[in-house]
């Protein structure tokens, strides 16, 4: 596998598990402390090493497209760009919906009701992704299994 193929695989993998990471707990915006609705990943990778290494900085934010929290996030992006040598990500992609689901909701049905959020259960295997019912977990298994199986091979450092 070439270095370029490895980089492409890593980027794809991180995109595929992004939803799982968002729904690991009741994340708050790191700037204003409102419920987080979006996650922004900033990565530094050293895939040419043996074994390859990657650091992912995952930012939970209320709105990654505008406002004061977005402006602070752009400052972080500039710092990561200096550290990695890659340019900042640039303007956000246009939103595909009005509002993204809250991080404290079930990953499948996105039920944001307070009672539902209080009763969420984590996946019994990886202990990350949260579901409101066994039915929602079963429905999500085909998508979730890649992240679930990878968890034991990843060193998670939570700040």
From TrEMBL:
Pfam families: zf-MYND. Keywords: Metal-binding, Zinc, Zinc-finger. The keyword Metal-binding applies. GO terms for molecular function: zinc ion binding. Residues 106-148 form the MYND-type domain. The keyword Zinc-finger applies. Signal peptide: none annotated. Transmembrane segments: none annotated. This is MYND-type domain-containing protein.
């Amino acid at each position: 596998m070439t270095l370029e193929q490895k980089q492409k695989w890593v980027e794809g993998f991180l995109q595929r598990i992004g939803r799982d990471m968002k729904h690991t707990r009741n994340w708050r915006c790191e700037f204003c402390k409102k419920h987080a609705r979006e996650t922004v990943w900033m990565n530094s990778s050293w895939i040419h090493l043996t074994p390859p290494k990657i650091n992912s900085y995952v930012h939970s934010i209320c709105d990654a497209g505008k406002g004061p929290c977005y402006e602070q996030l752009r400052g972080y992006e500039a710092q990561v760009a200096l550290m990695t040598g890659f340019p900042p990500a640039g303007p956000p992609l246009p939103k595909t919906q009005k509002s993204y689901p809250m991080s404290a909701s079930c990953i499948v049905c996105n039920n944001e009701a307070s009672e539902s959020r209080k009763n969420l259960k984590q996946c019994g295997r990886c202990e990350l992704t949260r579901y409101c019912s066994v039915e929602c977990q079963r429905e999500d298994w085909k998508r979730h299994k890649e992240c679930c199986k990878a968890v034991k091979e990843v060193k998670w450092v939570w700040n």
